[in-house]
Design a protein that fits this description.
This protein is an all-alpha fold. The chain is built from 5 helices and no strands. The longest helix has 40 residues. The radius of gyration is 21 Å and the shape is elongated. The model has no long low-confidence stretch (mean pLDDT 90). This is DUF1772 domain-containing protein. Keywords: Membrane, Transmembrane, Transmembrane helix.
Length: 160
């Protein structure tokens, strides 16, 4: 059967799960950069507190607020990195068919672990992939905002 022009033939479930897992695993790159930015903010904040008496109070407030926000965004990114990594591992195992043989078995395991409500119904694979992609986008958004706050803090300090 030929696919009409402009339409993509849906991949098989194992191929789709492998591609999804590989895509989600790229979240590790985002997480590494975020951890670096979070560590920098955690180091800079107390160091700049020592210089606070030499700074204008407005400057100190904005820089400290930006660094605090960068730390909070780093923690939010870490949460999303955990979720994305977990989903990547689940998709990889589902594709391999080793221990998990299907979505129903996965749901039962997640319910038993307390990671999924007992009342939640089963979701199709497309919905699960969409949810996982949304988590990765949120992880990337946290990193982008974290980077922006660090740039703002650095810019203000450079103008000081």
């Amino acid at each position: 059967m030929m696919t009409p022009p402009g339409r993509v033939t849906p991949p098989s479930n194992p191929a789709l799960m492998i591609a999804t897992a590989a895509f989600l695993e790229q979240g590790r790159i985002l997480d590494r950069l975020s951890r670096l930015l979070t560590a920098a903010a955690l180091i800079l904040l107390p160091l700049l507190a020592l210089l606070a008496p030499q700074m204008r109070s407005e400057t100190w407030n904005v820089v400290a607020g930006a660094l605090g926000l960068a730390i909070a965004l780093g923690l939010a990114e870490l949460y999303f990195a955990f979720r994305v990594g977990f989903d990547a591992a689940l998709f990889r195992e589902l594709a391999a068919g080793s221990a998990l043989t299907g979505l129903d078995q996965l749901d039962a395991s997640l319910i038993w672990l307390g990671l999924r409500p007992k009342t939640a119904g089963s979701r199709p694979l497309d919905d699960r992939i969409g949810g996982a992609r949304k988590l990765l986008r949120r992880q990337a958004l946290c990193l982008g905002l974290q980077l922006a706050t660090m740039v703002v803090a650095a810019g203000i300090l450079a103008l000081q």
